[in-house]
Amino acid sequence: MTYCVLVCLLFFCGVLPKALTAVIQTQQTVLAAVGEDAEFSCQLSETKDILQVTWQKISHDVETNVATYNKQFGQRVNDGFTDKVGFKHTGLQNCSIVIRNVTEQDEGCYHCLFNTYPEGSFIGRTCLQVYELHEPVVDVSESNSTEEWVVSCSATGRPAPTVTLSVSQQDLSFSQYNTVSVSNTNATFTVTTTAVLSGSCKHSTQVGCAARVLSAPHREVMVMIPEVQQVYAAATADYNDSTSAIVIATIAGLTVFCFSSCSHCTPA
Ligand SMILES: *[C@@H]1O[C@H](CO)[C@@H](O)[C@H](O)[C@H]1NC(C)=O
Ligand SMILES: *[C@@H]1O[C@H](CO)[C@@H](O)[C@H](O)[C@H]1NC(C)=O
Ligand SMILES: *[C@@H]1O[C@H](CO)[C@@H](O)[C@H](O)[C@H]1NC(C)=O
Ligand SMILES: *[C@@H]1O[C@H](CO)[C@@H](O)[C@H](O)[C@H]1NC(C)=O
Ligand SMILES: *[C@@H]1O[C@H](CO)[C@@H](O)[C@H](O)[C@H]1NC(C)=O
């Protein structure tokens, strides 16, 4: 505690000079999925005489000018970035750019420089992190023993996604987890988690699979495992195909489940 206070005092009052970055409001990290647009914005919170705002990309410690917004000449996107970068909000105090359709190549850090007179440049820094996450694919197959299923879920992403299985019904549980990660040629990973679902399955059951990378929104797929064996066989046909197939299978499962419950309750 005391140590921390000491360090803090050293940082803010002593060792560090009054940093020029302190007055710039910007995001430390921007997270964007491949193919999305990423927006960076910098705001100089103190009013200064700003001549120009310059945006730079930093790669391997080399700064490349990407775009400028000048008091006199307005906005300009430099050669090599015209398809990639655009201004969102132009202002000398508050400036933002958009990186369109981000790819792995756009990853890295970017500087915004407020060139002021007479103090010089105030620099803000934002880093772009690009991720990729595809919808998980769930496969359910019957195990040897009657009350067990083998559930397998695969998700592809960059960095390697975490894959989590869940089950809606309390008296069912997963065991014998096994996770395999395979690296693809394009720097993504395909992670497959397989587990055995067992317990007394008296009703149809919903199995979920969620895939996550970094702090990005997760992607989740739900699959229905109906109670009756022959129904299950019919509904399983397209589980591995696509989401729409899963949805259709789910509806089929639900419908049959509903019919079977109805036939129990309603006298014919
Ligand atoms: C600065 O720009 C950002 C993004 O363009 C916006 O959200 C914010 O309200 C602006 N601030 C001011 C003071 O104009
Ligand atoms: C996005 O970038 C990818 C890869 O560079 C390209 O194949 C695709 O056509 C681009 N999409 C758009 C809408 O510009
Ligand atoms: C199925 O049974 C065979 C023989 O009893 C066993 O070798 C195999 O591991 C079982 N498979 C599963 C998925 O439990
Ligand atoms: C990367 O490879 C995986 C697996 O081959 C594929 O699913 C994914 O679409 C690829 N991503 C890109 C951006 O090409
Ligand atoms: C789905 O699984 C079946 C067998 O389990 C296989 O024949 C079929 O090719 C798979 N389809 C896809 C799209 O992977």
UniProtKB/TrEMBL annotation:
<keyword id="KW-1133">Transmembrane helix</keyword>
<keyword id="KW-0393">Immunoglobulin domain</keyword>
<keyword id="KW-0325">Glycoprotein</keyword>
<feature type="domain" description="Ig-like">
    <location>
        <begin position="17"/>
        <end position="112"/>
    </location>
</feature>
<dbReference type="InterPro" id="IPR013783">
    <property type="entry name" value="Ig-like_fold"/>
</dbReference>
<feature type="signal peptide">
    <location>
        <begin position="1"/>
        <end position="21"/>
    </location>
</feature>
<dbReference type="InterPro" id="IPR013106">
    <property type="entry name" value="Ig_V-set"/>
</dbReference>
<dbReference type="GO" id="GO:0150079">
    <property type="term" value="P:negative regulation of neuroinflammatory response"/>
</dbReference>
<keyword id="KW-0732">Signal</keyword>
<keyword id="KW-1015">Disulfide bond</keyword>
<protein>
    <recommendedName>
        <fullName>Ig-like domain-containing protein</fullName>
    </recommendedName>
</protein>
<dbReference type="GO" id="GO:0030424">
    <property type="term" value="C:axon"/>
</dbReference>
<dbReference type="GO" id="GO:0016020">
    <property type="term" value="C:membrane"/>
</dbReference>
<keyword id="KW-0812">Transmembrane</keyword>
<dbReference type="GO" id="GO:0098632">
    <property type="term" value="F:cell-cell adhesion mediator activity"/>
</dbReference>
<dbReference type="InterPro" id="IPR036179">
    <property type="entry name" value="Ig-like_dom_sf"/>
</dbReference>
<dbReference type="InterPro" id="IPR003599">
    <property type="entry name" value="Ig_sub"/>
</dbReference>
<keyword id="KW-0472">Membrane</keyword>
<dbReference type="GO" id="GO:0009986">
    <property type="term" value="C:cell surface"/>
</dbReference>
<dbReference type="GO" id="GO:0043025">
    <property type="term" value="C:neuronal cell body"/>
</dbReference>
<dbReference type="Pfam" id="PF07686">
    <property type="entry name" value="V-set"/>
</dbReference>
<dbReference type="GO" id="GO:0034113">
    <property type="term" value="P:heterotypic cell-cell adhesion"/>
</dbReference>
<dbReference type="InterPro" id="IPR047164">
    <property type="entry name" value="OX2G-like"/>
</dbReference>
<dbReference type="InterPro" id="IPR007110">
    <property type="entry name" value="Ig-like_dom"/>
</dbReference>
